[in-house]
Design brief:
- The chain is mainly alpha-helical.
- Among the domains are: 132 residues; 71 residues.
- The chain contains 15 helices and no strands.
- Helix 1 packs antiparallel against helix 2, helix 6 crosses helix 9 and helix 12 packs antiparallel against helix 14.
């Protein structure tokens, strides 16, 4: 689709400028009407092509599916162009002439944000531009209360939006693999991954859960319900990390290929670093303890739910070390039924020792958390706190012998 520049120019205050402005305002409703009809027609054509492509009964001939898919792609491109034209011809002019609603102003603001990506992140721009235009039309349909059309549209909408979100996440995964990327850039990508996952779970997943069979998402319902509790109220640092942990857990089911295990592992490591920093920077004991509880949960998720599924290891030594950890973990789990208190204590010791071993490779960077871990192990009774004391011995005086030649 061709792009046209967006610039809001102030109207001339001259007589002719005022007349031009008045005429423009009169023409805006006409443009809205024409563009609305155009979108309606293109949307219907696209939906017909989509339904024809997804209906297996229409693929009797060998190449019929490819033909139907090509037609659907063409109709989809024309449909997006009609929405884009609506933004440029209608919303842009309404904002320029100060006749736009708050919804239209926000829509144009989001449009600017997406277009801004074109020069620096073209692949992300390509996906987000389509996502933006589809969201705009979906919200418009919802506001029109056209339930029959909306239900028909939602089948296409969730299918296409899921593909776009997967494309965005896969693009971020590729960017994380770039060894040239700076630490700041990688941190920015991590945040974008979590934001994209949250967008999907908030806006698309509820529609899928409503329109698809109920048992399809049975294995993530508990996580989804827990995530919903973080959508209201102010979150502290610990809550933000827990919310991201839940997002990662859901992503392991919904985006296995778009967010592969190696990327999920990097996201876990980032959360571990953030939680350690939260502990050492906490000035209130209650917050420090809450952050520590979060860390234990994170270590468990990372080691038990993620690393246990890891097949390829870069370093054989790490794999052997994890095997030892796993054997210890299985041995401790035998206590779960007979001695739950002792089980909880031994699991905590195992996790703290394991993470202590990881951070001790960089003692200067992690000096404070190393000290914290050692103090925890002292409290758990597996490490002794030996005082660094010394004793001054009395000095002895010696007489120097004078040798006479």
């Amino acid at each position: 689709m061709t792009e046209r520049g967006l610039r809001v120019l102030e109207q001339d205050k001259t007589f002719f400028g005022k007349i031009t402005g008045t005429i423009t305002k009169l023409l805006i409703p006409t443009k809205v009407g024409i563009n609305g009809l155009l979108i309606y027609a293109k949307r219907n054509n696209m939906l017909k092509a989509f339904e024809n492509y997804t209906n297996e009964n229409n693929h009797d001939e060998t190449n019929q599916k490819e033909v139907n898919f090509k037609k659907y792609e063409d109709m989809f491109a024309l449909y997006l162009e009609s929405i884009d034209k609506y933004v440029m011809d209608s919303i842009y002019h309404k904002v320029k002439n100060d006749t736009a609603t708050l919804f239209e102003r926000n829509a144009l603001s989001k449009y600017y944000t997406v277009v801004h990506l074109k020069e620096t992140q073209y692949i992300e721009y390509k996906y987000r531009k389509q996502k933006y235009l589809l969201e705009l039309d979906y919200q418009t349909l919802g506001a029109q209360n056209r339930e029959k059309l909306l239900k028909r549209y939602e089948v296409f909408y969730v299918s296409k939006m899921e593909a776009l979100y997967k494309g965005i996440l896969k693009n971020y995964s590729i960017q994380l693999a770039d060894h040239v990327a700076t630490k700041e850039r990688k941190n920015e990508i991590y945040e974008k991954i979590f934001q994209t996952l949250e967008e999907y779970i908030v806006t698309i997943l509820p529609i899928k859960m409503r329109t698809e069979p109920q048992d399809t998402y049975q294995n993530i319902l508990a996580q989804y319900d827990k995530f919903s509790t973080f959508l209201a109220g102010k979150l502290d640092g610990r809550d933000v990390i827990e919310k991201k942990l839940i997002l990662l857990g859901i992503s392991r089911t919904l985006f296995t290929h778009s967010l592969p295990l190696i990327v999920a592992e990097q996201c876990y490591i980032k959360l571990l670093k953030d939680t350690r920093a939260l502990i050492v920077n906490a000035t209130i004991e209650k917050k420090k303890n809450r952050a520590y509880e979060m860390l234990i949960t994170l270590i468990e998720d990372y080691n038990i739910r993620l690393l246990s599924t890891k097949i390829y290891w870069d370093k054989p030594k790490q794999r052997e070390e994890y095997k030892k950890f796993w054997e210890n973990y299985k041995e401790i789990t035998k206590l779960k039924e007979t001695g739950p208190v002792e089980y909880a204590k031994q699991i905590e010791i195992l996790f703290v020792r394991n993470d202590l071993k990881a951070v001790e490779t960089k003692p200067e960077k992690y000096a404070k958390i190393i000290q914290f871990y050692k103090q925890k192990l002292v409290e758990l009774g597996v490490m002794r706190n030996i005082k660094n004391s010394y004793k001054t011995l009395p000095q002895k005086t010696t007489k120097k012998k004078t040798v006479v030649a």
